[in-house]
Amino acid sequence: MFSSILNIIYLIASVTFIMGLKMLSRPESARKGNLIAAGGMSFAIFGTVFLYEASNGQHLGNLPWMFAALIIGGVLGAVSSRKVKMTQMPEMVSLFNGMGGACAMLISLIEFNHIAGSEIALGHFIAIVLGLVIGSISFAGSIIAYLKLSGKQKDISFKGQHIFNLVLFFIILVGAVLTYLVEPAMAPTFFYITFGLAILYGVFFVLPIGGADMPVVISLLNSLTGVAAACGGFLYNNKAMLTGGILVGAAGTLLTVLMCKAMNRSLLNVIIGNWGGSNAAGGSTQEGGSYKEVSTSDAAMLMSYAKKVVIVPGYGLAVAQAQHTCHELEKILTDKGVEVSYAIHPVAGRMPGHMNVLLAEADVDYEKLEEMEDANSNFKTTDVVLILGANDVVNPAAKNDPTSPIYGMPILEVEDAKNVIVNKRSMKPGYAGIENALFYQPKTSMLFGDAKKVLQDLCAEVKAT
Amino acid sequence: MQQIFSFFNENQQVIYMVILMIFLGIEVIGRVPSVLHTPLMSGANAIHGVVVIGALIVMGEAAADNYLALILGFLAVVLGTLNVVGGFVVTDRMLEMFKKKKQ
Question: What is the pTM of this model?
Answer without folding.
Answer: 0.82
